[in-house]
Amino acid sequence: MFRKTLIAAGLATMVLPAAAAYAAPPAWAPANGYRAKNGDISYRRTENGVRYWQGRDGRYYCKRSNGTTGLLIGAAGGALVGRAIDSRGDRATGTIIGAAAGALLGREIERSNSRCR
């Protein structure tokens, strides 16, 4: 009984300070970070759904997809196709090559839809 209580108390002393560090600052605290220095950002959208904004220097910047979702889906699909094509031995080579090719193809497909213009 004493051992469980001691372990629970030790875990609580480690978890509670970490939870307080991730809490939002109070309403009266001054803002810090990018918005405090540069003001609020207002995004606009292009016809194909890409968000962009105008910086303080007058240039336009866009927020586009980095292709991570396409990379993961392409790798999974490519691994399955590579495994099905390589029918000899343990089929690891086909799976690895298929995953790599599918990942590259999926990433490029997803990134090609988000051009800033």
Structure notes:
- It is a single chain.
- The chain is mainly alpha-helical.
- It folds into two domains: about 1-65, no CATH class; about 70-110, no CATH class.
- It is built from four helices and three strands, in the order ααβββαα.
- It has a three-stranded antiparallel β-sheet with strand order 1-2-3, with no helix packed on it.
- Strand 2 and strand 3 (about 60-65) form a beta hairpin.
- The radius of gyration is 25 Å and the shape is flat.
- The model has no long low-confidence stretch (mean pLDDT about 75).
Topology:
Blueprint: H1 2-21, H2 34-38, E1 44-45, E2 51-54, E3 60-63, H3 68-85, H4 92-112
Helix pairs in contact: 3-4
Give a short overview.
This protein has 117 residues and is mainly α. The chain is built from four helices and three strands; from the N terminus they run ααβββαα. α3 (68-85) packs antiparallel against α4.
Biggest sheet: strand arrangement: 1-2-3
Query: How many domains make up the 3D coordinates?
Result: 2
> What's the count of strands?
3
Order of helices and strands: HHEEEHH
Which outline best applies? Answer: flat
Residue share in helix: 40-55%
Low-confidence parts lasting 5 or more residues at pLDDT below 50? none
Helix/sheet category: mainly alpha
Strand content: 5-15%
Rg to the nearest angstrom? 25 Å
Q: What oligomeric state best describes the polypeptide chains here?
A: single chain
Main beta-sheet annotation:
3 strands, antiparallel
| Mean model confidence by pLDDT | 77
Distance between the termini: 66 Å
